[in-house]
Amino acid sequence: MPGDDVTSSVVPGPRPSHHSGPGYVANPKAPDFELDAPLREAAARWLNLVPAEHRHDAREPAKDVLETLREHTRSCRDHPLGALWVAHRHLGDPVPAVRIASLVLASEALWWLGYFEDARRAAQAAADADPTSAQALWRLAVALYRQGRFEEAAGRLDSLLKVASRFAPAWALRGQVKVWLEADNPDAGRTDFAAAAALTSDAGTWVVPYRMAGADFQAKAEAEIRIHDSETGGSSGGLVDVVLLPGKSRVERGIDPDRRWHLEGPSTGGGDSDNLFGGLGGDFAGRRPRTAAVS
């Protein structure tokens, strides 16, 4: 973990912050609200991000606008620019629930495009309009997490789990937030990781990270490499380095909190590129130029 000799070792797996969320459920009692002037200005800027070739929706329109927004939310990772355009189209809808869903979709699209402060702003507006919206709380939590605002993310995750207690990625992400907030506590987040792992759903499979001192982690990594070399008859070429997660100050300046210091940040075109070492906050061991994950 940052700044100490306690590391986390996990089997590489899905990152909770990459999940699209618990699903948007429209609240027919959502109070009416208006986008304030700063948010309208931001929305105009969001539209300018979308090239002309993405300003269309090739899909058959759903029976209602909310279902269209839900469909785009589920596939947003694959077409964030198109999703952002669809979200912007409905920000002025007369129905409050549609405007909230549009803000949620805009937040996710902006997240995948790498505009994390804008993603936070859109999600914050949605959560302010409907504090019971699990989807809005999730998008706000993951945006805050990506910005290194861990205490705020923890608060939003607490609120989310009160209304969506069976959403495993929220438990997993709250566990990871606790690890960041309590770097010196080897038990930080353990119960939340266990809660995520115990839930079975379509939200993914979550592991319980096992944390150990840095020296023990390095010894374990070297032992695994020796076993690999004996089984393959090859040589991994020496000892391994244990590389810690980035320091909190670097995360606050834009480094991905789940990314190792020498790996690239957001990929070209937006979002975070998939990586073998993208599991729940574990350190990895490897020698340069090759690296190897150790579970």
Present the secondary structure layout.
Layout (H helix, E strand, L loop, with lengths): L5 E4 L27 H12 L16 H10 L5 H10 L6 H17 L3 H14 L4 H13 L3 H14 L4 H14 L8 H9 L11 E4 H19 L8 E3 L4 H5 L31 E3 L4 E2 L3
Antiparallel strand pairs: 1-2, 3-4, 4-5
Helix pairs in contact: 2-4, 3-4, 4-5, 4-6, 5-6, 6-7, 7-8, 8-9
Characterize the structure shown.
It is a single chain. The protein is elongated and about 65 Å long. It has two domains: 6-13 and 211-292, no CATH class; 22-163, Serine Threonine Protein Phosphatase 5, Tetratricopeptide repeat (Alpha Horseshoe). The chain has eleven helices and five strands. α6 runs antiparallel to α7 (150-163). A hairpin with a 4-residue loop joins β4 and β5 (291-292). The protein has helices at residues 37-48, 65-74, 80-89, 96-112, 116-129, 134-146, 150-163, 168-181, 190-198, 214-232, 248-252, and strands at 6-9, 210-213, 241-243, 284-286, 291-292. Helix content is 46%, strand content 5%. Strands 3-4-5 form a three-stranded antiparallel beta sheet, with helices on one face. With 295 residues, the chain is mainly alpha-helical.
What's this model, at a glance?
The protein has 295 residues and is mostly helical. It has helices spanning 37-48, 65-74, 80-89, 96-112, 116-129, 134-146, 150-163, 168-181, 190-198, 214-232, 248-252; strands spanning 6-9, 210-213, 241-243, 284-286, 291-292. The protein is 46% helix and 5% strand.
Helix content: 40-55%
CATH C-level class of the largest domain is Mainly Alpha
Strand order of the largest sheet: 3-4-5
> Total number of β-strand segments?
5
Outline, from the CA principal axes? elongated
At the fold tier of CATH, the topology name of the largest domain is: Serine Threonine Protein Phosphatase 5, Tetratricopeptide repeat
Domains, number: 2
Name given to the CATH architecture of the largest domain: Alpha Horseshoe
The total of helices stands at 11
Average pLDDT, rounded to a whole number, is 76
CATH evolutionary superfamily of the largest domain: Tetratricopeptide repeat domain
Rg is 20 Å
Main sheet record = 3 strands, antiparallel
Distance between the termini: 16 Å
Compressed to H and E, one letter per element, the order equals EHHHHHHHHHEHEHEE
| Low-confidence sequence ranges | 1-13, 260-295
Structural class by SSE content: mainly alpha
Strand content: 5-15%
